[in-house]
Every structure is written in structure tokens, then in C-alpha cells.
Amino acid sequence: MAGLEPGEDPTLPRIEFIKATGKLLPHVESYYVFRCDAAQMEGIERVDLGQLRFLIRGEGEMTFPDGHVESTRRIMVNGPGTAAATYKMRGPVHVFGVSLRGIGWKALIGLPADKVADHIIDGEKLFCEQAPLLLQRLRKMDRLEDMVAAIEPLLMMRQQEVKPVPKAHVIFLRVIREWAATEDPTIEWLYAAMKAETDMGERQVQRLCKEYFAGPPTHLRRKFRAIGAAMRIYQGAPLGDVIGPFADQSHMINEIKHFTGHTPTTLRDDIDPILAVTLDNESFHFLPDVIPETVDVRRR
User: Fold this and answer.
1) How far apart are CA 271 and CA 12, in angstroms?
2) pTM of the shown model
3) Which stretch of DSSP H or E encloses residue 56?
4) Mind spelling out the 3-state secondary structure of 102-143?
5) Which of 46, 50, 95, 178 has the fewest CB atoms nearer than 10 Å to its CB?
6) What gap in Å lies between CA 28 and CA 266, rounded to an integer?
7) How many Cβ atoms from other residues are within 10 Å of residue 114's Cβ?
8) pLDDT averaged over the chain?
9) Quick one: pLDDT at residue 87?
């Protein structure tokens, strides 16, 4: 990992990332290393698609939206959540992570998102004995590029173990991307598009939304609106320019807080530094990027 900049405080959280390329591009959005040398740290984790994480150093707990607490695991999978979560870590903390696309959740994890939402999954049970061996190797590495090269064979092996993504699901994910890219996506638009593309009914679309994103289309739409609004507010947009898709300002504030853990005020004045990175950098775009537009994937 890149060294500290002159004068940089090692106790502040730092993150480095690389966009995915090559054969894993359909499934992986990016790879990252997170490091904080503080003895104790707390933070907020917004809703996201899915994360595979290797705790090279550190341990702690996550508190999920319903209030239950789970301990971190040295190799863990965080699935698509229903709302923002918080974490407390005992450091120093050093994490190597893989940020999954929606299609990657299906192709590499293979678990229905709604069955594991707001929980920590033991990654060793998914990847068996290869994962602990990889963790030992990661502990000896400093460069993110080396970590990416080390994990790619494991992910490729896992891809072969999980059933290929059905063609209808690939179409569903493409339509979800297009739906999310509209200024104010409506449920009716989604149902009509899926009917035209695949002849799927509303119940089938609802089932796939739960399987991939841990909730029905109505909940997914709320995520789109809240994260999109949070990104714009953090990047400087006036509240009046963002409020359009919401009933009123109070509704907007409550939705943004539900999914990011922040209000519009704290997004600008007291934001969690890691959340700030995910709202400021295009490499962490949210749900519209569920599948890359220019990449073909395995189909059956």
C-alpha cells in the first residue's frame, strides 16, 4: 500500500482502491485497502451491494439497523443491507476488500441477499481452506496490486463452483441499471420494461429484487433516491436542486439518514471520512452500476 503523505496523520482512516479489469470485471466493481492505525475507531457504513473483506489486522463489531450486534470475522462477506449500519473497531485496522456488483453477488457468493441482509457471513465457509491461506499471504503484502493478483485465482475458482447467472437474470440486471439511471425511477416503468424484455410478471421481478438486492423494488427505489441525493449534496448541490423526487424536505432528510447514517448537514460538515470517499469518487457509484454496460457475462 502507498505510504503516508508528508504530515499525514496515521490514526486517520485511509483508503486506496483499484477498479476491476479483465475476466472478473462483470462481477467485481473494485478492490480496496483500508487502513487506520488508531487504537479505537468508529464509523458508519452506508447501504451497498456486497463486500468480501479480509481483516489483515484489527477486530470489532457491527451494529445493524434493527439494533443487533455481530462480531467481525477475519474473512467476511457483507451482503446488500436494508439501511446504514455502524461499526466499532479495535485497531490498528487493516482491511483488504472486494466490492461486488449485483451480478457478482449471484456469481461469486450465490446466496439470496434477502436471507443474509444485515448480517455478517463467515467467508471461510464459502471459500473453504483457500481463504485462510490467502489471508496469511495478504498479511505479508503492502501493495494493493499484489493483493488483487493474489485473490483473482480464488474468485475465478469460486465462479466455477457457483451456477452461471441465468440469461433472464442478466437482462433483469441490465434493466435495473437503466431504471436506476432515470432521474426519478418509477415502479411501473420497471415492471413494464421487464415484461417487454422477458415477459416476467411483477411477482418474478419482486423475487429477483429480493434475491439480488435484499428488498422489493419499492425499497430499491428508495435506496436509489437516497444515495443519489446524498452524493449530490456532499458534492455541493443545493437542497432545492435535490429535493425533487421526495415528498418534502423532511422526507428527504429522513431517507438520506436511513440509508447513509447522515443528514444533509452532516454530509457536508461532519461526514464519516470513508463514507465521503464513496460519495465523492466515481469508482464507488452505487446501484446503477450493477452490471458493466460493455461487458458480456456467462449465460445459460
Assistant:
1) 13
2) 0.86
3) strand 51-63
4) HHHHHHHHCCCHHHHCCCEEEHHHHHCCHHHHHHHHHCCCCC
5) 178
6) 30
7) 19
8) 86
9) 94
The CA-to-CA distance between both ends of the chain, in Å, stands at 39
172, 205 contact by CB (below 8 A): yes
Q: Is the dihedral of CA 150, 155, 160, 165 positive or negative?
A: negative
Res 23: pLDDT: 82
217 grid coordinates: 423494488
Percentage of the chain modeled with pLDDT above 70:
90
Q: What is the mean pLDDT of residues 72-99?
A: 94
Half-sphere exposure for 257 (CA within 13 Å, toward CB) = 10
Percent of the chain with pLDDT over 90: 54
List, in sequence order, the alpha helices (H) in the chain.
102-104, 113-116, 123-127, 130-138, 144-161, 167-180, 187-198, 202-213, 217-234, 239-242, 249-260, 264-269, 273-280
| Residue 135 amino acid letter | L
Q: For the residues of 226-240, what is the DSSP string, one character each? A: HHHHHHHHHTT--HH
Q: Which residues pair with 59 in a beta bridge?
A: 90
Beta carbons of 120 and 50 less than 8 angstroms apart: no
Q: What is the pLDDT of residue 69?
A: 97
Three-state helix/strand/coil letters over 203-222: HHHHHHHHHHHCCCHHHHHH
Sign for the pseudo-dihedral over CA of 113, 117, 120, 125: negative
Query: Angle at CA 241, nearest 5°, toward 239 and 246?
Result: 75
